[in-house]
Structures are given as structure tokens and as C-alpha cells.
Design goal:
With 567 residues, this protein is of the alpha/beta class. The chain folds into 4 domains: 169 residues, 3-Layer(aba) Sandwich (Rossmann fold), CATH 3.40.50; 62 residues, Orthogonal Bundle (Helicase, Ruva Protein, domain 3); 119 residues, Zinc Finger, Delta Prime, domain 3 (Up-down Bundle); 112 residues, DnaA, N-terminal domain (GMP Synthetase, Chain A, domain 3, 2-Layer Sandwich). It is built from 28 helices and 10 strands. The strands form 3 sheets. It has a 5-stranded parallel β-sheet, with helices on one face. Strands 8-9-10 form a 3-stranded mixed β-sheet, sandwiched between helices. A two-stranded antiparallel sheet has the order 6-7. β3, α6 and β4 form a beta-alpha-beta unit. The longest helix has 22 residues.
Length: 567
């Protein structure tokens, strides 16, 4: 069988080929050039990040006939012999199967013999954390003071299992998870050199499924190439990795946001019929909302996204969701994932989770607050009534709204809503600025309480409204739109809710008077003009008081603008 897996064919042969570990390769290259090679190294990090490859490259570099150099030449007899494993002085040991005291004692006995073919004898011990306590103890003295011609390179994925006495005798290098973009770049080079046709999004899908491991990524790519026919497509990558497509996750998230339980359950049914693993799906869904949260808070950090590709549908969904809603969804999905681990029927937990997610009363964005169902229904009814009135007028039927309810001060006629001007003028005569400021300081808190108490329809009516004047027992509220003013004042529940909320915050029960913005400007202007005469009279009184010597002295000290004379 001549075929070799991609990760074996494309194993790095120089430090420059080790992807995503520049902080380690640069340090080793400098040590090689300066001939400051340590007697023991510990390479730790996740699987498939280049630990063993870096160890073999280091073994070639110290034994290269052109040393000291930063990279092995891969042309001399020493480099070629180490690459093909024909030189016995570079020994690779699998500690998972050779973890006893006897094996380590054998190394300790042979380590004193000089190398036969190259300058240094190099021991590469893979999965060193699998050694027994006795084996570690047998290795201690040799690892601390080996002969000058010996180098130990220990590799592990679980450094916390290694005794501190071993770690303290080594130079430790921590390998990082390789970023998805670095994996994609490496795979692009491989498929290009190999003459394989592959879609860019398929490579991205494989890179994200590899979870930071280059070996895992190349194994998945190898599998996808075998599965595909002419070209590796996104569907091939999804099939091989077992992941759920981005379009499906977008569709399900949209159904949850719109509270469409039926659509959500149908999508889940399609997923399970396609043979997807429920455990893998819920993990992808958790990461989907995690990426949504990160993109919403830090849109520039695209590299931090684990499973999501930034398409337009995902961006629109992110704009629609608010953070508090995403928190609730992630918590519920995480609890469901834990429950699924201890059951033989994970599908039931998934279906329950979809139903609960669709019924979550999560907060919505500011745009969706304005378009509340109750408000929209009222607007639709009003539009229908206006259409019926127009139809009756065309048929010659006379409609008189004034006669039908003459006792109402606030009424609708052909001219539209008319604010109670007389009542507003009475309030303005006794209105005070401190009273208005007191109400305005509690206005925002009142709106927040309405939203928290599920009274969003009342909050929506006040979205474009504000208090503009207040007396000891009454408030004038200005509405931006006439239709909102009419709907608010005709709604007894709305008046009672606002009155009660203000009483809880301020301790007073106010009478509510509403006025549209355009009518308020006219009423206010007329009131100010009519009160000009009284201001003139007050000015004459001040002139009389100025003759008092104390008042005159106060004017000299503080100025006439700041002076207010009270009896």
C-alpha cells in the first residue's frame, strides 16, 4: 500500500513549516545559532500542534553537518537518516506503552554510550505523562545530569500530570492551539500543491471542526477528499465533520426569535432524519450563540469566532437579538446538554429545549418594542374604522361624532383629536418647574418598570412622549403623534397604570392630561401671550421695591437679574 495520509506526507521538515508556533520556533532557532542548547526540553500543548515534529526538527538541526544553523538542511546524511529513521542515535519512545521502571532503567544504562553516527544522541519521549511514578523517579538523576552528548525532549498533552521535579529540570515550551485561519492557509497550500480542487468555505468548515489541531484538520481533509467526487464541497465537509450547516443554524435561530415553535420542531426533525448526532448538534448550537454574543460585543474580533461564518443572515440575526436574550438561551442549552449526557433518549431533551426556547420571554431590540402586537392590532382596527367611515360618506350617510358623545371633553371629530385647551391653561397657571423636574427624574425608571412588568404596550405608547408641565395634582404629557395621544387617553387601563406607577415612585396621584406636539406648541404660545400683562404688572411692583435702600444695595452687589424680592 503506497498511499500515505496527508499529515504524514506534509509533516514539517523545518521550523518554518511548523504553523502557529512562532514563539517557540524563533527561540529554538536563536539557541541553535548561539549554540546554547539545553540538555532537556519539555514540549506541552494540545494534540496535533507540532510537538513531535518540532522535536525531530530540533534533533536534525543539532546533528546537521552544517551546524550551527537555524534550520536543518535536509540534504546531508545526518538529516536524511534522522528523517527516514535509519540513524539509531535519535530514539523515539512511546511512553504510553513503555511506561515501566525497567524501560527507563534501560535508557539510563545506555545513555552513557557515545552516539555512533551523529554528534548528539537525542531521546524523544512522547506522551511522557503516562510514565509511572517509579519510572519518573528512575529518570530524575539522568535527566538532571546527562552526558554532554545527550539531549532529552519530552512531549505531553497533559503537563499537570508530570511531577514538578521533572518539569524543573527542563526548558518548558507551551504549544498553542493553531488558529482557524492559519490552518486554512496551510490546507490551501497543500491542496494547491497536490492538485486537488476544494472550496474555500469547505476548508474553513474543516478548520473550525479541527479545534486548533493541524493533524486533525489534515485527517478530516483526507477523509473529505476520499468522500468527494471531483471537488471537495461544503456539503462534503459537513458530512465528514458531522457538523450542522450554517444555514440550518440561522434558520433555527430565526424560528426561536420569532417564537415559531412549529418551524423549530420541523427543522429539528429534518436534522435528526439526516443522521446528525444530537450531542454534536447542541454543541454547535451553543457555539453559534456564543459566536453571536462575541460578534455583537466585539465585531472586529472575527478570529475569536469558533463555528460561525459571517454571512448576511447571521449579521441580521445578531442585530435583532439582545444580549440578555442570548444569555438565557445559552444557559438553557447548556443545561440541556448536561441532561442529555445521562439519558438514552437525547431527542426528547432536544425537542423540549426547542419548545422552551421558542417560548422564552426574552427582551427584544428597541425596534421590536415599537412594533408590539397589541399596538399593531389597535392601529389596524382604527384603519378599518376610518375605511368604513369613508365608505359611508361616499354613500351619502352623515356621520356626526360630536352628537354621539357630547358629554366627552376629549373627542374625535372630522378635524381629528382636539386637546382640552381650557384644562391645560388652568394647569399651566399653577404649574411649577420643581414639580416638573421631580416627575422627569422618575420618568425613565417608570418606563423601565413597565417593560420589566410585561406592560410593553403601555411603554410603547410612551416611547415618543414626555411630561412638559406639572402642577401639584396634574401632569401635561406631550405625545409626538396624535394617534398615540388619542389611544392613550381612551385607554382607562393606561391612565390607571401611569398614575399608579408615579404614585409608587413619587408618592402623589396625578391627573393625566395629554396633548399632541403640534397642538401643544400653539396652546403654550397663546398662554404665554395672554400672561404678558401680569408679568408687566410684576415689573412695576419691582420698580417700586427698588426704592427701598436694602433692595438698592442688593442690586449693586448681585445684579438685577439674580434678584427676587419677597414680602
Amino acid at each position: 500500500m503506497n498511499y500515505q495520509a496527508l499529515y504524514r506526507v506534509w509533516r514539517p521538515q523545518q521550523f518554518v513549516d511548523v504553523v502557529g508556533q512562532e514563539h517557540i520556533t524563533k527561540t529554538l532557532q536563536n539557541a541553535l545559532l548561539q549554540q546554547k542548547i539545553s540538555h532537556a526540553y519539555l514540549f506541552s500543548g494540545p494534540r496535533g500542534t507540532g510537538k513531535t515534529s518540532a522535536a525531530k526538527i530540533l534533533a536534525k538541526a543539532v546533528n546537521c553537518e552544517r551546524a550551527p544553523i537555524a534550520e536543518p538542511c535536509n540534504e546531508c546524511a545526518a538529516c536524511k537518516g534522522i528523517t527516514d529513521g535509519s540513524i539509531p542515535d535519535v530514539i523515539e519512545i512511546d511512553a504510553a506503552s513503555n511506561n515501566g521502571v525497567e524501560e527507563i532503567r534501560d535508557i539510563r544504562d545506555k545513555v552513557k554510550y557515545a552516539p555512533s553516527s551523529v554528534s548528539y544522541k537525542v531521546y524523544i519521549v512522547d506522551e511522557v505523562h503516562m510514565l509511572s511514578i517509579g519510572a519518573f523517579n528512575a529518570l530524575l538523576k539522568t535527566l538532571e545530569e546527562p552526558p554532554k552528548h545527550v539531549i532529552f525532549i519530552l512531549a505531553t498533552t497533559e503537563p499537570h500530570k508530570i511531577p514538578l521535579t521533572i518539569i524543573s529540570r527542563c526548558q518548558r515550551f507551551d504549544f498553542r492551539r493553531i488558529t482557524a485561519q492559519s490552518i486554512v492557509n496551510r490546507m490551501s497550500l497543500i491542496v494547491q500543491e497536490s492538485g486537488i480542487s476544494c472550496e474555500e468555505k469547505a476548508l474553513q468548515m474543516i478548520a473550525r471542526a479541527a479545534d486548533g489541531g493541524m493533524r486533525d484538520a489534515l485527517s478530516l481533509l483526507d477523509q473529505a477528499i476520499s468522500y468527494s467526487e471531483d471537488s471537495v464541497t461544503v456539503d462534503d465537509a459537513l458530512t465528514v465533520t458531522g457538523a450542522v450547516s450554517q444555514g440550518f443554524l440561522n434558520k433555527l435561530a430565526k424560528a426561536i426569535f420569532e417564537k415559531d415553535t412549529i418551524s423549530g420542531l420541523q427543522s429539528l426533525e429534518e436534522l435528526l432524519l439526516a443522521g446528525k448526532d444530537p450531542g454534536r448538534f447542541i454543541e454547535d448550537f451553543i457555539f453559534f450563540y456564543r459566536d453571536m454574543l462575541l460578534y455583537k460585543t466585539a465585531p472586529n474580533l472575527e478570529e475569536s469566532l469558533e463555528r460561525v461564518l459571517l454571512d448576511e443572515e447571521f449579521k441580521e440575526l445578531t442585530e435583532a437579538y439582545v444580549q440578555e436574550h442570548i444569555y438565557e438561551i445559552i444557559n438553557l442549552l447548556n443545561k440541556t446538554q448536561q441532561d442529555m449526557r445521562w439519558t438514552n433518549h437525547p431527542r426528547i431533551f432536544l425537542e423540549v429545549a426547542i419548545v422552551r426556547l421558542s417560548q422564552l420571554e426574552g427582551p427584544r431590540s428597541s425596534e421590536s418594542v415599537v412594533e408590539l402586537p397589541e399596538l399593531q392590532n389597535l392601529i389596524n382596527k382604527i384603519d378599518g374604522l376610518e375605511a368604513e367611515l369613508a365608505s359611508l360618506k361616499q354613500q351619502g350617510v352623515s356621520v356626526r361624532a360630536e352628537e354621539s358623545s357630547p358629554q366627552k371633553k376629549i373627542r374625535t371629530n372630522r378635524k381629528g383629536f382636539q386637546a382640552p385647551t381650557g384644562k391645560i391653561n388652568e394647569i399651566l397657571k399653577v404649574a411649577t418647574k420643581p414639580e416638573l423636574q421631580n416627575i422627569k427624574s422618575s420618568w425613565g425608571e417608570m418606563l423601565n418598570k413597565l417593560v420589566q412588568n410585561q406592560m410593553r404596550s403601555q411603554a410603547a405608547l410612551l416611547n415618543e412622549a414626555e411630561p412638559v408641565a406639572a402642577s401639584d395634582d396634574s401632569i401635561i404629557i406631550k405625545f409626538k403623534y396624535e394617534i398615540h395621544c388619542q389611544m392613550a387617553l381612551d385607554n382607562g387601563k393606561f391612565i390607571e397604570t401611569i398614575t399608579t406607577s408615579l404614585y409608587q415612585l413619587i408618592g402623589k396621584r396625578y391627573k393625566i392630561v395629554g396633548v399632541p406636539e403640534d397642538q401643544w406648541l400653539k396652546i403654550r404660545e397663546d398662554f404665554l401671550n395672554s400672561s404678558h400683562h401680569s408679568h408687566t404688572t410684576e415689573g412695576n411692583d419691582l420698580e417700586t421695591q427698588k426704592k427701598d435702600p436694602i433692595v438698592e444695595e442688593a442690586i449693586k452687589l448681585f445684579g438685577e437679574e439674580l434678584l427676587e424680592v419677597k414680602e
